[in-house]
Amino acid sequence: MSTEKTCEPRNDINNRLIALTVATIAAFFTPFMASAINIAIPSIGSQFSADVILLSWIPTAYLLAAAVFAVPFGRIADIYGMKKIFTLGIIIFTISSFLCAISPSIISLIAFRVLQGIGSAMIFVTGLAIITSVYPPKERGKAIGINIASVYIGLSLGPVLGGILTEYFGWRSLFIAVIPLGLLVLVLTTFKLKGEWAECKGESFDFSGSIIYSIALVILIYGFSILPSELGIILVILGVIGILA
Questions:
Q1: Is the pTM higher than 0.70?
Q2: 19 partner at 20 to 30 Å CA-CA among 6, 10, 12, 55?
Q3: 26 and 103 fall within a common domain
C-alpha cells in the first residue's frame, strides 16, 4: 500500500519564515522603545531642564499616538494592503527614531515621539495580521506565540537595556539602537517578503468615524490626566461618549 506525501513549495516556506522574522523583530523594538524610555527620563530632564509635566509627555505622546492611529491604520491596511502599511510604518519609525536621537529641545523630542508612535501603530496592527495571512491554521498558533513572546521580551528588556545604554552611552543611544533593526526589517520586507494582503480591497474608509474616535481618545486620556478636577470629569465623560459614537 503506497502513501502519497504532499510537499509544500520551498518558496512558500521561505516566505513564511521571512514574514515571521520581520514581524517578530518589529514586535520587539516597538514595546522595547515604549518601556526603555522611562529609564532615560531623568537624564532627558537634566539635559533640557524640563519640568515634570513636559517630561511626562515623552512616554505619553508615543503611547497616545499609537492608540489613536491603531484602529484607523488597521482599517487602511485591510483596504490598501498590510505589507504597504507595515513597510511605511517601519520607515516612519526608523526616521523618527533618528530624529528623536538628534532632538535639540524637549518640544521637538515630544513631537518626534508622536511621529514614532504613529509608525509604531502602523507596525503593530499589521505585523501579526501578516503572520496570520501567510501561515496555514495548523502552524498559525506557533507563529503567533513566537510573535507575542517577542512583544513581552521587548517590554521586559526595555528597562534593563535602556538603563545600560543610558548609563554608558546617554539617552540618545536608546533611539540609535533601534535604527539598525528598523533598517534590517525594511530591507527584508522590501526585497524578500513576497505578496500583499488586502482583505477588504475596494471598500470605503470611514473618515468621520476615525476622526471622532481619535479626538475622543485624546480627550479621554487628557481628562484622566487632570482628574479629579471638574474639567477632567467633563472631558472623561465626553471622551467616553465620543468613543461610543
A1: yes
A2: 6
A3: yes
